[in-house]
Write a structure and sequence with these properties.
This protein has about 350 residues and is α/β, with parallel strands linked by helices. About 30% of the residues lie in helices and about 25% in strands. It folds into two domains: about 1-200, no CATH class; about 215-340, Rossmann fold, CATH 3.40.50. The chain has ten helices and 15 strands. The protein is globular, with a radius of gyration of 22 Å. The protein starts with a strand and ends in a 6-residue tail after the last helix.
Length: about 350
């Protein structure tokens, strides 16, 4: 046990891999993944503090690594949330922390409980580190069950996973990586290719029946309150003519989800985390994503570019800033027909 300072009020968010790591004298490595990919830098932060109740890593007693927060935006977003800010202020001061001598890569960060972000921002670290010969541990606490299933599929044994953290922790060696995420996906094609290859190889024997045309519904996998489409009957009539199968990926075992995605040639539905499965489709497939005009966040566009998918964004008409569905989705079926018109209707 060690007593350390946690100056929450004075914390600042900044990149630590690269120039900062060099100025601090941290041990550093550079990994070339091949092709035209930018190199991935691996930096070893010394004596990093992790606060599990906040999902927050602090290095040098004052710096929150932007590589683990989705940039400064993620830090500022959380600081504006009263619950997060109040909890951080309440913990400020001297804290008793468990000392961990192992090398540790933190996978439980601000957005790690989101399926899409877990795959595209956290699991990608595992693939890169394992490729580099890393044999340290991964901190994965308080995550949904699929997170641990993914780690198992990638061959990470339970003894290398820290799955429980009731107290703050200090890591003698905390691994930080160049941030790899949606905005720079095209600079790290090989990294995402490795993730795709490893998971498809592991899941080839799932035995699941696949369908070429999938409409993604959200029941078990919906955690944000937006789980359905206002004009669902009208949409289902269109989908029926084009031979779509409706599937809630969250209701399937993880290997079956990946094989189902790999067997699909068209994936469509309401915007949501399940579109991370577009990474497992065959290249040059078709993706159709439906949005409300009040909530546009097409995070998979660069992944669709990476996979050379044909991508369509469907957004209903909205005049004078008003949309009758609010954040709920009303699919414009004329737009849907346009996106599907190259498919032969049944």
């Amino acid at each position: 046990m060690r007593t350390v300072d946690f100056p929450f009020e004075r914390l600042q968010c900044r990149p630590v891999v690269g120039e900062y790591a060099a100025t601090q004298g941290w041990k550093r490595e550079e990994l070339e993944l091949g092709g035209s990919d930018l190199p991935v830098q691996i930096a070893h932060a010394r004596y990093a503090l992790y606060m599990p109740s906040l999902r927050l890593t602090v290095v040098d007693q004052s710096v929150v690594p932007s590589e683990s927060t989705q940039g400064a935006w993620g830090w500022e977003f959380h600081r504006r949330q009263p619950d997060f800010n109040d909890a951080g202020m309440a913990l400020q001061g001297s804290v008793d922390a468990v000392f961990v001598r192992d090398e540790v890569c933190v996978l439980t960060n601000f957005f790690s409980t989101n399926f899409y972000k877990w795959i595209t921002e956290e699991l990608i670290k595992v693939v890169v580190l394992e490729r580099a010969g890393y044999r340290g541990k991964y901190l994965a606490v308080g995550l949904r069950e699929y997170a641990y299933e993914f780690l198992e599929l990638l061959g990470v044994p339970p003894e290398r996973i820290i799955a429980n953290a009731k107290r703050p922790m200090v890591f003698a060696d905390c691994i930080q990586l160049t941030q790899i995420w949606e905005r720079c996906a095209l600079d790290h094609r090989r990294a995402y290719g490795l993730l795709r290859e490893r998971l498809l190889q592991t899941c080839t024997s799932s035995g699941v029946r696949t369908a070429e045309r999938l409409w993604m519904i959200r029941r078990l996998g919906a955690f944000n309150g937006r789980s359905d489409i206002v004009n669902s009957e009208e949409v289902e009539a269109v989908l029926g003519r084009y031979g779509f199968e409706m599937v809630d990926m969250a209701a399937l075992p993880l290997p079956s989800q990946i094989r189902m995605a790999n067997g699909a040639r068209i994936m469509a539905g309401l915007h949501g985390a399940a579109f991370a499965h577009s990474l497992f489709m065959e290249p040059r497939s078709k993706v159709v994503e439906c949005f409300s005009p009040t909530h546009l966040n097409p995070g998979i566009i660069n992944f669709c570019r990476l996979m050379r998918h044909d991508y369509s964004m469907l957004v209903p008409r909205s005049t004078h800033g008003r949309h009758p569905g609010g954040e709920e989705v009303i699919v414009d079926c004329n737009q849907l027909e346009l996106a599907l018109q190259d498919c032969d209707a049944g």
